[in-house]
Design brief:
The chain is an alpha/beta fold. It has three domains: 11-159, Alpha-D-Glucose-1,6-Bisphosphate, Chain A, domain 3 (3-Layer(aba) Sandwich); 163-388, 3-Layer(aba) Sandwich (Alpha-D-Glucose-1,6-Bisphosphate, Chain A, domain 3), CATH 3.40.120; 392-480, TATA-Binding Protein (2-Layer Sandwich). The chain contains 15 helices and 20 strands. The chain has a six-stranded mixed beta sheet, with helices on both faces. A six-stranded antiparallel beta sheet has the order 15-20-19-18-17-16, covered by helices on one side. The protein has a four-stranded mixed beta sheet with strand order 8-7-9-10, sandwiched between helices. The radius of gyration is 23 Å and the shape is globular.
Length: 482
């Protein structure tokens, strides 16, 4: 059991070590049994996969096991993004989906996500039930069904997903983008977006489109398939040299976004979520107390200020898009976002969608080009900051001895009423790790890594000078505890 553990979004492990056909078979059997136990085995299961090594073989293997249980299986012919997989669940009214992916992890990893019938990440309760089945099957392997028992007519191969395009057109203004005539560059990072995103760009194009790394490479060009600033140097160079209006990028399974504006500025996810939220309120006219915004405990409080300006409710969740999805399913959530690069909006699926996020950014740049004197995204952010205040934030990972990790969290939990550099700690939250809130609206969140001897520190301040002092204080304090 210690070899198969669901994290914040599925099970991931090293290919040919723990992530192998035998262990994958146990997981798929466990998911099948869960669906049958819950009587959710009526309409079928979709299976998607990314561009990693053996992903299509893992997907086909999984399809045959589900077929052996009598499920109708809809298997993608080629790699497909996670958000498209999630959308197909709701559009086709299926019982759920499997997505073979390790998202933005290194190339030696693969993984599997189970997406239930609501088209978003599985809840803790669902994964707990699946893990109970895994424990049972590890001790009762004679109960496993195998690929040799599969029924061929239960498996349907799907090649195109036009309904996803129709859905995207409902939430993004294609006409205004085309009219603006932007020069757009996009980096696929060799991921699952290659079969979907470039086609959409062709449709919205009113000018030159440049698509980078638009093929399968299971080694991702020697980099992580993560749209971070470090991994988008090639995209930045093209934008500056060829004078493109915007550059966007997707991670390995296209559920996370990345963007570089025409000035060559990389906007981190905190700023992107805030930009899109502000645009939806100020330009698209979404406002009022009937609406809510959802962010994780690690995400910028600039979201909070936008909520106040437009009279929108705020919900703070633990880290993980599954918690955001749970709130979105309740209705009236305008936007849900997390600092690691996940975002979705009202009227769309309760799942991270990097394609939708990037298209909304392109729409915003179209608006800026035609309505705000052709300013770039980072200039638009400065306008927002001038109105609502500056927010300086960063995540740092500190290596600590594994035996000291829990003690560090406990030490921070006991700090209520203390001061940091003469600023009093006003509150301490423990819904996920420990979060210290200071009277000057600065905050720090500490969470323990589940796989490495690391303490993850998320730090934010409204003042740049205090941010640097605050960050150094946290680093020094943690070091003193080790």
């Amino acid at each position: 059991m210690n070899k198969i553990k669901f994290g914040t979004d599925g099970w991931r492990d090293i290919i040919a070590d723990n992530f192998n056909f035998e262990n994958l078979g146990i997981v798929v059997n466990s998911i099948a049994r869960y669906l049958i136990e819950k009587k959710e085995n009526r309409n079928g299961i979709f299976i998607g996969f990314d561009n990693r090594f053996l992903s299509e073989e893992f997907a086909s293997f999984s399809a045959k096991i589900l077929s052996a249980y009598g499920f109708k299986v809809f298997l993608s012919e080629k790699s497909v993004p996670t958000p498209v997989t999630a959308f197909n669940v709701t559009d086709m009214h299926l019982d759920g989906a499997l997505m073979i992916t390790a998202s933005h992890n290194p190339p030696k990893y693969n993984g599997i996500k189970f997406i239930p019938n609501y088209g978003g990440p599985a809840t803790d309760l669902i994964t707990s039930d699946i893990e109970k089945n895994i424990r049972f099957l590890l001790n009762n392997k004679d109960a496993l069904r195998t690929t040799s028992e599969s029924i061929d007519e239960n498996i349907v191969i799907l090649t195109e997903f036009p309904k996803y395009y129709e859905q995207i057109k409902k939430i993004v203004d294609f006409a205004s983008i085309k009219k603006a005539g932007l020069k757009i560059a996009a980096d696929m990072l060799y991921g699952a977006g290659i079969n979907i995103f470039p086609k959409i760009l062709d449709e919205i194009s009113g000018n030159e489109i440049r698509v980078l790394n638009n093929k399968r490479d299971a080694l991702f060009g020697g980099k992580l398939p993560d749209p971070s600033e470090k991994n988008l140097a090639e995209l930045k160079k093209i934008i500056l040299e060829k004078k493109f209006d915007i550059g966007v990028a997707l991670d390995g399974d296209a559920d996370r976004f990345g963007v570089i504006d025409s000035a060559g500025v990389f906007l981190n996810p905190n700023n992107v979520i805030s930009l899109i939220f502000y645009y939806l309120c100020s330009v698209k006219g979404h406002k009022g107390s009937n609406l809510k915004a959802v962010r994780t405990v690690a995400t910028t409080h600039l979201i909070d200020e936008i909520c106040k300006k437009f009279d929108i409710g705020l919900i703070e969740t633990p880290v993980g898009f599954k918690y955001i999805a749970s709130e979105m399913l309740k209705g009236n959530v305008l936007i849900g976002g997390e600092e690691s690069g996940g975002l979705s909006i009202k009227g769309h699926i309760p799942e991270k969608d990097g394609i939708a996020a990037n298209l909304l950014l392109i729409e915003i740049q179209s608006y800026l080009k035609t309505q705000l004197h052709d300013i770039c995204l980072s200039e638009y952010l400065r306008i927002i900051n001038k109105e609502l205040g500056d927010f300086y934030n960063e995540r740092i990972d500190l290596q600590v001895p594994r035996e000291k990790m829990a003690g560090i969290i406990d030490s921070f939990k006991k700090m209520k009423g203390n001061s940091i550099e003469n600023i009093k700690i006003s509150n301490i939250l423990t819904k996920d790790g420990v979060k210290l809130l200071l009277e000057n609206k600065a905050w720090v969140l500490l969470r323990l890594s589940g796989t490495e001897p690391l303490v993850r520190c998320y730090i934010e301040s409204r003042n740049e000078s205090f941010f640097n002092i605050f960050k150094q204080y946290i680093i020094n304090f943690i070091k003193s505890l080790t």
